[in-house]
Amino acid sequence: MSDRFCSVLIGSELSIVSSPMFDRGEAANSLTVTIAPGVTTGELSKFFTDNNVCFKTDAILDKATYGGLIAAGCHGVGKDQLAVSDYVKGMSIVGANGEEAVYTFPSDDQDNDNALKCNMGLFGVMTSITMEVKPMVIVKVENDFSYTVEDLFYNPTALKKLYEDNWSLEIFWFPFNNLSWPQLIALFYFRCPEQVSWEPKHDKLWIRKINPVDVPDEPTPNQVEYDIKEVQDAITTGFGRSSAPYLNKNEFLIPSFLKAGFEMVQTFNATTRFEPMNKAIHYQSFIDVMPVLDMEFAFNADPDTFSRQVEAMQAAIDITKKYY
Ligand SMILES: Cc1cc2nc3c(=O)[nH]c(=O)nc-3n(C[C@H](O)[C@H](O)[C@H](O)COP(=O)(O)OP(=O)(O)OC[C@H]3O[C@@H](n4cnc5c(N)ncnc54)[C@H](O)[C@@H]3O)c2cc1C
């Protein structure tokens, strides 16, 4: 691959065209890709696989558009990485006067650059975005199911260590997973939570640890394995979608549903994998199939804030316990 990379991706038909859209100034020696804002994260990921390049920061979602991600300053992975919009090297925007303005970054006005990159749609309609890309990075993805809620959410030192030891970390809690199936059946049948005691501290966590590696110890998954994973994702999200109305009507089913979901996650994510960066980040497909109420909070990962983070997690645990 040459050290210059220029392509324009249009809508869902991703095609490489030869003419550069921007005078890239200082970015001339870096690899860039120019996309229409309607290109989705999943579409660009396919392009990255075909062309062996990646963003080192991105969104898990595979159906969001880059226009939406960048305008809102969303997403990012990796503790040495910024938000996706921070890697924008140029953009064109059609303003209220109907004229298209072309910008390249950095300019000599950093505040204006930052406002344009995270523009919230306020400057007009973006018509193209140029982003910095890297040669493909291979990462090691480890799925760790050994920690309990108590081990991490009541222990800021352990949480901090896990954060420090990994480049990117995702921690998931599926409440009720330490209840046994006989307990869950009793809970559903008798509908008396007071008869089945649940201690959230004993629930297991799912932790995804992502770390870039120089030379993978084993081959990365092939297309057949990714196709199988797509089918698994479709089954799990499809199951979630079709069960949602029953869960709404029968709240006593929710602990069993979460326990089954956690068991499925353990089965499907049993191994450590070496994967291209884009596959490791966009690891879950079809989340658009299963609409959920999604509340999100950002925490500062400054080393001194882990005691506050465990407090926040404990508040979430207390609310779940109250619901139970
Ligand atoms: C399940 C889920 C999980 C999420 N997880 C995270 C997370 O972990 N971290 C995080 O930071 N965010 C997260 N988000 C938030 C998500 O990234 C944002 O809502 C993002 O804006 C979604 O992109 P979209 O393509 O749906 O945007 P849209 O809703 O289409 O657009 C969002 C806004 O961007 C602007 N915009 C879009 N296109 C253009 C354009 N061409 N020109 C000008 N302005 C434009 C508009 O102001 C528009 O209102 C999550 C969202 C969901 C649904």
From TrEMBL:
Domain of life: Eukaryota
Protein name per the record: FAD linked oxidase domain-containing
Stretches assigned to coiled coil: none
InterPro entries: FAD-bd_PCMH (IPR016166), FAD-bd_PCMH-like_sf (IPR036318), FAD-bd_PCMH_sub2 (IPR016169), FAD_lactone_oxidase-like (IPR010031), Oxid_FAD_bind_N (IPR006094)
One GO MF term attached to the UniProt entry: oxidoreductase activity, acting on the CH-OH group of donors, oxygen as acceptor
Pfam families: FAD_binding_4
Species per Swiss-Prot/TrEMBL record: Paramuricea clavata
